[in-house]
Design brief:
The complex is a heterodimer of chains A (about 400) and B (about 250).
Chain A (H helix, E strand, L loop, with lengths): L1 H10 L3 E2 L12 H24 L7 H17 L1 H7 L8 H4 L10 H31 L2 H10 L8 H34 L12 H27 L6 H32 L4 H9 L3 H25 L4 H27 L11 E2 L12 H21 L5 H6 L1
Antiparallel strand pairs in A: 1-2
Helix pairs in contact in A: 2-3, 2-4, 2-8, 2-9, 2-13, 2-14, 3-6, 3-9, 3-14, 6-7, 6-8, 8-9, 9-10, 9-13, 10-12, 12-13
Chain B lengths: L2 H20 L4 H7 L9 E6 L8 H10 L10 E9 L4 E5 L16 E10 L7 H5 L5 E3 L5 E3 L9 H5 L6 E2 L6 E2 L5 H4 L6 H5 L5 E5 L6 H8 L2 E2 L11 E4 L7
Classes of the chains: A mainly alpha (about 400), B alpha+beta (about 250).
Chain lengths: ~400, ~250
C-alpha cells in the first residue's frame, strides 16, 4: 500500500503519457553504483597494466596501489546487484541455470574470472616475496595473516622471484582484455536493449570502457595524493604528471566517443529524438549538461590543458590535479546516473516522462548506496595496512 | 539433511533422470497437461480498434482472474484512449476503471480522430524478455505463449527493461516479474482468456493460428492487420485491425 501511495504522488509528476506499468523506476541508485564501481575496477587495473605491460616506469609508485584499489572495489561490486534483486535469496540460480542468451547471466562468470584468475593471482604473485619477508619480521596476528595469505610458501630465491615477475606480466597481459571484458560487458547489458533508444547503441560498451579508464585513473590519482602524505611520504611529481597526462588522453578519447554518439543520434534523428531531447533538456539537464559534460569533463580538460601550457609550481599543480580528479569522479558518477536513471525516465511509448524519487532509508535508497560507495575505501585501508604498496625507502626517497 | 537422506535423494535423482530420458518427447506434456497437447496449437489474439468502446471490463476481469494488484500501476492488460485533435496534437491516457478519475472532456469540433487501444503482452515470437532473463525464468511455450516461472525469477527486472511494450511489472507481493499469460491456465482447459470472454463488443478475438476456421484465422483474413512496433522485429502475436499510425 505504501508503494501505491508513493506512485500516486509520482503520477502527479508524470509529463505526457506513460504506459501504466512504467510509473515505477526499476533500476534504482544501486544500479547506478554498480557500473560506477566496476568502472573504477577496470580503470585502476588498466593503469596498473601500463606499468607491467607497457613499461611506463614513472608510474611504478602507483602500481600496487592501483591493484589494491581494483580489488577493494571489485569485492563490493556484486553487492549493489544482490541488494536490488526482488528475490535475493535466489541469486544462485544465475550459476545453476544460466540462460546463455542473456548478457546478465554471464555476470557471475565474468566476475569470478576477473576476481580469481586475474586480480587475486596477480596480487598474490606481486606480493609473494614481500609477504614471506614481512611475515618473518612481524609477530602475532599479522605474522599469521601474512603466512596464510602467502599460502605458506617460503621460497624467496632469485629464481622463484624471477618466476613471480614473469607470471605477473603474463597475468597482466591476460588481465587487460579481461578488464575490457568486465566493463565492456556492463555496457553491453545496457547497449543491447533494443526497446530502449537511450541505451540501445553499439557505442555503449566503448563509452563504458573509456569512462571506466578515466574514472579508474582518476581514483588512483586521488588516492595516491591522499595516502602518500598520510603515510609521511612525498608525492613523486614525475609520477603524478605522467598519471595526469594519461588521464588527460583518456578524457579526450572518452569525450570524443560520447560526442560522436551524441552527434550521431542528433543527425539520424530517429523516432525517439523528440522525447530524448525533452529528457535531456528537462530531467537530465543538471546531471548531464552541467555535471557530466561541463563540470565533469570540459572543466577538468581545460584545467589540464592550462597545466600543460603554463609551467605551474608543484604545489599549485598538485592542487589542480586533485580538483580535476575529484571533478572527473563527479562527472563519471553522473554519466552512470544519466545512463541508468535517464534510460528509465522516458516512456517507451515516446510520449512522456516520469520521475525518479530516490528513497533515503530503504534497501534501494541513498544511505545504502553511500555505504556501498564508502565500503571499498575501508577495505582498501585494511589491504594497505596488511600489504603496504610502498616500502619505507620508497616513501622517503621519492 | 543427513548422509542417508542425501544418498537417497541422489539415487532418486539419477533414476528419475534416466527414466525421463527414455520417455517419448510429449510424455512430459502429458503429465502436466493431461489431454492437452501444446504442440497442436499456436495462439494469437486479434483486436479490432474500431469495436473497442473503452468500457474497461477486460481490465477488471483480468485483475480479478489473475490476482493482479488493484492499484492503477499494475496491469496485465489495459486500454489507452487516443484523442487526436485537428491541430494534430495527440492526447493519450490509460482509461480508469474507477469513478474518482474521470476522463478529460474535449470539445467535439476540435477532435480529428478518437479511439481506444487495448494493450497486453504481445506474446512475441522473438521475445526480448526471454532473451535477457538471466536464469531462464521466463520462457516461450510450444503453443506460442511467453510464461513466467515465478518460483525461479530472481526479480532482477531485466525483462521489464527489455520489453518494448511496457507490459511487465514487478509484483509487489511476490517480488517477481509478472505479465499477461493469455490466461494460460484457462487455455489448457479449453477456455478463452478472460479479457476476450468479458468483452461486450467482441473487440478482442482469440484463436489458434494453426486452425483455418478459428475466429482468429477469420479475423486475419478479413482485416488489414498491423502489429505494434514492427521495426523491433519481435513478431507479436497480438494482431490489430484498424490501428492508427499514432499508436505505439
Amino acid at each position: 500500500m505504501e508503494a501505491a501511495h508513493g506512485f500516486m504522488e509520482l503520477s502527479q509528476q508524470v509529463i505526457g503519457f506513460i504506459y501504466p506499468n512504467e510509473i515505477e523506476i526499476h533500476w534504482s541508485i544501486l544500479i547506478v553504483v554498480y557500473p560506477y564501481i566496476t568502472g573504477l575496477v577496470a580503470g585502476a587495473f588498466i593503469l596498473a597494466s601500463l606499468v607491467k605491460v607497457f613499461n611506463v616506469k614513472e608510474l611504478q609508485p602507483t602500481y600496487r596501489l592501483a591493484l589494491l584499489t581494483a580489488l577493494a572495489f571489485l569485492l563490493i561490486a556484486p553487492l549493489p546487484l544482490q541488494l536490488h534483486l526482488g528475490r535475493p535469496e535466489r541469486s544462485y540460480e544465475m550459476f545453476m541455470t544460466p540462460n546463455p542468451a542473456s548478457a546478465m547471466a554471464m555476470f557471475g562468470f565474468v566476475y569470478l574470472w576477473y576476481l580469481m584468475l586475474v586480480l587475486l593471482l596477480e596480487i598474490w604473485f606481486e606480493y609473494r616475496r614481500d609477504m614471506i619477508v614481512w611475515s618473518k619480521e612481524s609477530t602475532g596476528v599479522r605474522k599469521w595473516a601474512l603466512k596464510i595469505l602467502s599460502l605458506f610458501s617460503t621460497d624467496v630465491s632469485e629464481k622463484a622471484v624471477a618466476f613471480d615477475k614473469k607470471t605477473v606480466k603474463v597475468i597482466t597481459i591476460i588481465g587487460i582484455p579481461s578488464a575490457f571484458l568486465l566493463h565492456g560487458y556492463v555496457g553491453f547489458i545496457f547497449g543491447s536493449i533494443k526497446a530502449n533508444p537511450w541505451w540501445s547503441s553499439v557505442m555503449m560498451p566503448v563509452v563504458f570502457l573509456f569512462s571506466a579508464i578515466v574514472s579508474g585513473i582518476a581514483i588512483v590519482m586521488l588516492l595516491y595524493m591522499i595516502i602518500i602524505p598520510m603515510r609521511g611520504g612525498k608525492i613523486d611529481m614525475k609520477c603524478l604528471d605522467r598519471v595526469a597526462s594519461f588521464l588527460f588522453y583518456a578524457v579526450i578519447v572518452d569525450f570524443s566517443i560520447e560526442a560522436l554518439d551524441f552527434i550521431h543520434r542528433l543527425y539520424e534523428s530517429e523516432e525517439s529524438i523528440k522525447i530524448l531531447s525533452q529528457l535531456v533538456s528537462t530531467k537530465l539537464f543538471m546531471s548531464l549538461v552541467i555535471l557530466q559534460i561541463l563540470l565533469g569533463m570540459l572543466l577538468p580538460l581545460a584545467v589540464m590543458v592550462a597545466i600543460k601550457i603554463f609551467k605551474l609550481q608543484d604545489d599549485l599543480r598538485k592542487l589542480l590535479y586533485f580538483v580535476c580528479a575529484l571533478l572527473i569522479q563527479l562527472g563519471i558518477f553522473s554519466t552512470r546516473w544519466n545512463v541508468v536513471i535517464g534510460g528509465q525516465l522516458f516512456s517507451k511509448s515516446f510520449r512522456g516522462l516520469t520521475t525518479y524519487k530516490m528513497e533515503l532509508m530503504g534497501i534501494e535508497g541513498l544511505l545504502v548506496a553511500l555505504v556501498l560507495l564508502i565500503a571499498p575505501f575501508v577495505i582498501l585501508a585494511v589491504l594497505i595496512k596488511l600489504l603496504p604498496p610502498w616500502k619505507k625507502e620508497e616513501l622517503a626517497g621519492s | 539433511m543427513d548422509r542417508r537422506d542425501f544418498l537417497k535423494n541422489c539415487c532418486l535423482l539419477v533414476t528419475s533422470a534416466a527414466v525421463a530420458g527414455r520417455l517419448p518427447a510429449d510424455a512430459w506434456a502429458k503429465t502436466i497437461y493431461k489431454d492437452y497437447n501444446p504442440a497442436k496449437h499456436l495462439y494469437g489474439m486479434g483486436i479490432d480498434i474500431s469495436k473497442c468502446i473503452g468500457c474497461g471490463r477486460c481490465m477488471q476481469g483480468c485483475k480479478t482472474e489473475n490476482n493482479v494488484p488493484a492499484d492503477p500501476y499494475y496491469f496485465r492488460t489495459w486500454v489507452e484512449r487516443y484523442v487526436i485533435k485537428t491541430d494534430k496534437s495527440v492526447t493519450v491516457k490509460t482509461i480508469s476503471t474507477t469513478v474518482d478519475d474521470p476522463a478529460e472532456v474535449f470539445v467535439e469540433k476540435d477532435i480529428l480522430r478518437s479511439f481506444f487501444v487495448p494493450k497486453l503482452c504481445n506474446q512475441c515470437d522473438h521475445p526480448p524478455c526471454v532473451q535477457v532473463c538471466p536464469v531462464g525464468a521466463t520462457y516461450k511455450t510450444v503453443d506460442g505463449v511467453t510464461l513466467m516461472d515465478e518460483k525461479r525469477c530472481i526479480g532482477c527486472r531485466y525483462c521489464i527493461q527489455a520489453c518494448p511494450y511496457g507490459v511487465r511489472y514487478l509484483h509487489p507481493v511476490t517480488r517477481v516479474a509478472d505479465k499477461c499469460t493469455f490466461c494460460y491456465h484457462r487455455l489448457v482447459r479449453g477456455l478463452l482468456p478472460v479479457c476476450v470472454e468479458v468483452c461486450p463488443k467482441q473487440a478482442r478475438l482469440f484463436g489458434d493460428m494453426k486452425s483455418f476456421a478459428s475466429p482468429l484465422g477469420r479475423f486475419t483474413r478479413m482485416n488489414k492487420i498491423h502489429v505494434l512496433k514492427p521495426s523491433l522485429n519481435t513478431d507479436p502475436k497480438v494482431y490489430y485491425a484498424n490501428l492508427d499510425g499514432e499508436v505505439n
